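Proteins fold reproducibly. Take a sample protein:
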Amino acid sequence: MSKQALVVLAPGCEELEAVTSIDVLVRGGVKVTVASVCPDGQLQIRASRGVQLLADCPLRDVADQPFDLILLPGGLPGAEHLRDTPLLIDLLKAQARRGAWRAAICAAPALVLAHHDLIGSAHVTGYPGTEGALGAAYRDQAVVVDEANKLITSKGPGTAVLFGLAAVAALQGDAVADQVAAGLLVSRH
């Protein structure tokens, strides 16, 4: 059975992080559902640089489905909209309780995960300047994979390919992630 990932979009999300994560996951054979947190159910999202993105469905339509990974792009004010979406926070808490993967990049580790006490004992990274909100859990690395806590975090737009590859490795294994990396002409290490 194919692994399934949920990528959650909000107005003002960082488009490079969103699109790159989706693309790399799809290249890795992961079935990706893109959901919008817009309260009116709007599927078209204007990202942080004005690029229009189109979600597959409103978040509420897939809230009862189990996903192997829930991924949060960063960007502002996108991460703030994610932080302020109670349904998403409930889904992230349930994901953690069942020991399934969560991933957040850029501002999302601090503004969403740390804000809602969803980091626990995990080591994390995030956009420069968010170290204070991440506290002792912070690591100055492009991508941090905390296997024990099933949490993947990354710094920002320039690390999005590595972030996506870490998500592929978590879901599909290192060999698949290495194949995707080779096709993208990047090194995972």
In short: The first strand starts at residue 4 and ends at 9. The chain has one domain: 4-184. The beta strands are 4-9, 31-36, 44-46, 52-54, 57-58, 69-72, 101-105, 143-146, 151-154. The radius of gyration is 15 Å.
